[in-house]
Amino acid sequence: MTDEALTGGTSTDGTPKGGTPTDRTPEDRPPKDRPPEDGTPEGLSPSARLVERFREVNGDHPMTAADDAYVTARFVPLEALCAALGRDPDEVRLLMLAELLPLPGYLRSDGAEMVPRDLFALADAAGGVDRLRAWFTGHWEDPDRGDGEWAAYLSGQYVCLHAVTPANIHRKEELTAEITARLATAGDDPSPEWRAALHARVDELDALEPAFTAYDRLRFGGPVSRDTCVDAPRALFPPVSR
Questions:
Q1: What distance in Å separates the CA atoms of residue 39 and residue 219, rounded to the nearest whole number?
Q2: How would you list the strands of the sheet with 113-115, edge to edge?
Q3: Are 152 and 114 in contact (CB under 8 A)?
Q4: pTM (two decimals)
Q5: Radius of gyration of the chain from Cα atoms?
């Protein structure tokens, strides 16, 4: 689950606007790695259409200079990644618009579409973009849950993990649920054992998650999981010195 789902964000059902999962069967899909028609009106370039889709999903919020610096340090412009890998950036944009690859995580203030350096890793693990959805959703026993996580993945909003993998998505959800449950039963003076168990989970979540940006807190509509499940527990219940 992304931080939009945790905070409420812009979608009440956890499905990003503009990012609903496709119901096409494998037989209906185009050959491997070939972008299909996405039904977008003609006249706009793939880049302009991608920016439009990004804003439909995330809203239109400002990026500060600090946000730009954070994103530049952790992500790479789509054009640069494609140049390094010998891919056509417009073909990749069309795959994103066709809901076969995730949207960019951020739009930098200069308009650069910022994506993770391992953008294609899951598609490669699945054997191609045409097989990615089935591979990805197969990591959830509940098909509806798998479809929901697929929609969240396509939104590009899994900026809440250093590495976006089904295993890390599962583990983040488990940790945030366990931390939240422990905080709800903390009492006035938790024992050292209770604090140690809490901090073991907080530290593990801390290792999975990046720092986030002010922009993230705007698009997700409030505090992010690092605020509520890492920073807050550490401030409220410091580890007991031994």
A1: 26
A2: 76-77, 113-115, 106-107
A3: no
A4: 0.81
A5: 19
Beta bridge partners of 115: 76
Is 157:19 a contact under the CB 8 Å cutoff? no
Helix (H, G, I), strand (E, B) or coil at 114: strand
- Per the CB < 8 A criterion, the answer to whether 3 and 16 are in contact is no
Residues with Cβ within 8 Å of 144's Cβ and at least 6 positions away in sequence, in order, are none
The closest alpha carbon to 13, from 22, 1, 23, belongs to 1
| The pair of three-digit structure tokens given for residue 27, joined into one six-digit string | 């037989």
Range 182-186, long-range pairs (CB < 8 A, 24+ positions)? 183/232, 183/233, 183/236, 186/236, 186/237
**CA angle (139 as vertex; 228, 178 as ends), nearest 5:** 25
Find out whether 229 and 205 touch, Cβ atoms under 8 Å: yes
Closest C-alpha among 28, 19, 95, 106 to residue 69: 106
**Given CA atoms 154, 10, 2, 66 in this order, what sign does their dihedral have?**
positive
Residue type (1 letter), 61: H
In angstroms, the Cα distances linking 162 to 28, 118, 150, 175 are 33, 10, 18, 15
Measured distance CA(41)–CA(124) in Å, rounded: 30
Per-residue pLDDT of 116-173, as tens digits, reads: 999 999 999 999 999 999 999 999 999 999 999 999 999 999 999 999 999 999 999 9
